[in-house]
Hints:
MetI-like fold, mainly alpha, flat, 10 helices
Amino acid sequence: MKRFLIIAPMALLLAGCSDNWGWYVVDPSTTNGFNNLKFMLTGAYYTITLSVTAILISIVVGLLVALPGLSKRKGWRRFNRTYVEIVRAVPILVLILWVYYGLPTLTGITLSVFWAGVLALALSDSAFQAEIFRAGIQSIAKGQYEAAQSISLNYRDTMRFVILPQAIRRILPALGNQLVYMLKMSSLVSVIGMQELTRKANELVVSEYRPLEIYTILVLEYLVLILIVSAGVRWLERRMQAAEE
Length: 245
């Protein structure tokens, strides 16, 4: 029902035939409209690849940053808090521009548009992932740690076999939200020339001069992607809950 309430207004909007609207530019029944839609959809591969690669890296980095925040040593906790606060304070668009244009100047390493986007997105998201993992791990009862110690598990094995599997089940909805967030924020990488969905739409607007129609299709593309991801996360949640029962 919720999906219908979202999609129905879009369908009515597309069905509207105003003299000021030129839906012919995205009409699949015409050669030009079909080619325009095909051109826009080619950006979906880069949007998905960019987002998935960045989220996987950010999860690993976020976990590595979260663990020091759980340490009893003040220095490690300070490192965690400093990293999280600094990274979260930098706007993601600024970070993308800095990584692409500034980082090569500092390091002498030239990054492709794709990897500059991945690095910037992963770095920005890792601070949020660190907080998600820290909260998830802290939610596990102390008795689980004591049980692991009673069977002589070291810290690494305790985290790997006892704590993290339980924590991941609890933070899965938050991880799903971050993937949705990543899909949306990947549109900002278009400013450095990444040929993803938003960049393709911008190029088409320049050639067709129909921003309303083209950006409406862009909205629908992101809507479909995010609905699919949300459905996948909910399915995975149900599977993990069923495995516990």
